[in-house]
Fold this protein.
Amino acid sequence: MPGGVATAAAEPIVLDAIGKRYETASGAVQAVDSVSLTVRAEEFVTLLGPSGCGKSTVLSMIAGLVRPDAGRVLVDGAPCTGPNPEKVALVFQDGGLFPWRTALDNVTFGLELRGVPAAKRREIARGLLEPMGLRGFERKYPRELSGGMRQRVAIARALALDTPILLMDEPFGALDEQTRLLMGEWLVGIRRRARKAVVFVTHSLLEAIALSDRIVVMTARPGRVKDVVDVALPFPRDLNAPEVTDLRAKLWEQVREESLKAMGSPP
Amino acid sequence: MGRLGVLGCQAGSLAVLLLAWEAAVRTGVADPLFVPAPGAVAAALGSTVREALPRLGDTLLKALLGYALAVGLGVAGGLVIGSRRFVHAVTMPYVVACYGVPKILVLPWIALILGLGTSTAVLTATLFAVFPILLMVAAGTRDVDPTLVTAAVSMGATRGQVSRKVLLPAVLPSVLAGMRVGVVFAMLGVLLAEMFAGNRGMGFLMQRMAMAFKASELFAATLIVSILSIVVVLSLEHLNQRLSRWR
Amino acid sequence: MTVLAWRLGILVVGLGLWEAVAAPLNPIFYVGPSALPGALLQMWRVPELPNLSEHVWLTLREIAGAYLLAVAAGLWLGFLFGLRRTVGRVYEPLLAALYAVPSVIWYPSLMLFFGLGPASKIAFGFLLGFFPIVLSVLSGVRQVPATLVTVAQSMGARPWTVFRKVMLPSMASTMAGGLRAGLALSVVGVLVGEILGSRAGLGYVINYAYGLMMTREYAVLAVIVAAAVLALDAAGALVEARVKRWAG
């Protein structure tokens, strides 16, 4: 890289005091204010906070879908100027699956855009869907799949591009609690093998604790970093262990304060 | 009541209706000059079909041309209007107004300029069919889930790829629905133009039969056109079902 | 604000184009908007054109007749098919089949049967206006949430009360839409009938003007009728919106 900071291996994601402001009918809204964060390779970082605290906006900025008004986003050392399909893959809350495509064709979408030949695409897609327990469902349409299955297809689609970074915006938010917990367990299993830097957005404390290496607690709007908590527990995590309960209590204290602010009443 | 039962009732009701109708004419309750007996209509069917066939072809051809134009304009226009907020806000009142104005009012003017021939019929068909298609496609385009576009963009899709691989398939059901509705309107436009200012085609023939009090032939002709129209619509409906399996 | 400006802009440009195109061309065929007000004033005095107010009155009566019949038949059949399931199952597909047929083909037969007088126009207007009404009643009946009916019945309400206090309010907005569409179509039916073959009425006058190549008069009439129909539909829209707000 000409000039600039030369590091042996650039961190996958560097957020340098990024901010975002939106113009709405009722005036300007500061969604995100001066958020700084570094995500290391193969690290699982969760953004935790109440609704409207800008977590999704931060994710959009990392993905290059939204330009920050302040600060900069560096992906793999290079400034982020737009969508970066080589480096960043996204999973959305309601899957964003194309309803007119089968599960298989959804997974191959990104590969199609890259010009990967058909046979190879299908091979990769099948290779991803099978360990997810979706063997036999490749030809089904999203309408014919359950919520949990749809999210797994969405994740498979994101994994198909084999990017070093994976961004997930409340991917299990639309699922019922049991499915959610199961999906969480499953994701833990997947990530070990996937070896990606993951930024995960959620408002569920348990989910954050179960999955992350680090949890970034965000304030209510305007979203700032309130605290960064290391979760140094081994996987798989026993959610009934005392350390987890302690951590949960500690996180809840902070999140509760911000949630009340977000709801409009004093803490 | 099962499907067979329903069909049976329908057939039965039709049979009863036909019998009562035949009886009414035979007993003189209904004047055969105005209300031909079903038997007479059936008898006239053969000769009417022969007379009608070339005219039917003429009508269908004009309808097809007008329909093709309407689909082209309506789908393109609908996509543009539906995808841009500003264009939608500005043009919608006019589109709705055009849809709400009885288009028959424009027909004399078209006939005055274009004469009594094919172009009048084709233009009228286009005029009748384009607005419902446009409205339905615009609505369908507006309803496309923005997350789908975001997902595609995040995977590196160019604008062209987004249009082809996301917008088009997402909008297809609305396009098909609009096309289905448009067919009847196009036929309506052609027939209307033929009745008002035509010298060929089915509409003109039927109008002439009415003026000449050829009741049986007229009823037969009406029957023929009805059946044809129902067949066309059913086929389109069937096609629509097959293309929308994912819904 | 800019939206409004653009809309006005389109209107101005449209009228301007119309005027510009019409001005140099043969006045028999092309009439610009500037010629219209003058023609309007003249119309009342032109002897060839029959007494306008009588014709307008006739058309209005035909529309009223057609619409009232459409409403009566539409409501009756709609409720019959909607409430009596089996009857509905048998006859609704037949109704749907009729809907796939271009309605204008019925008109020659109606003309043959009813003659060129108002009856054929009322019949045709009825035929056109009837469909949206019956379809909206059918769909409205089916949309009534079964839970609401059950709640009312469990509180001891009798069938007529259930109908009046539960079903009708639930169906109100759908029905309002159908009644509004029915009115628009009845008007179209009467106008089409008059233009295609009649001896009196607004459509007849329009046809008359067209036949005598009195393009200016025809244009004025067409514009006025178009505006009247739009105004009528706008009124219908207001009523529909009111009903929607009341029905919740």
Summary: Chain A has eight helices and ten strands.
